[in-house]
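Here is one such tokenized protein:
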Amino acid sequence: MNGYEAQLKKILSRHGWALLRPGKGSHEIWFKEGYLPQTIPYGCKSRFLANKILQAAGVADRF
């Protein structure tokens, strides 16, 4: 597995999140009404970080 980025984006999209804009460097900013924007790093290799992003996004799914 090359990381959690693609799976993370798929889960966020399924729960109503959308790409807001590219971030600085190697990140993307995702947005959903009623939540703080979430920063997603390209090539997210950390399961811990991916789960923290999902938790902050209000998604119950976990890796």
Residues 9 and 40 are 8 Å apart (CA to CA). The first helix runs from residue 5 to 14. The chain has a mean pLDDT of 93. Helices lie at 5-14, 47-56.
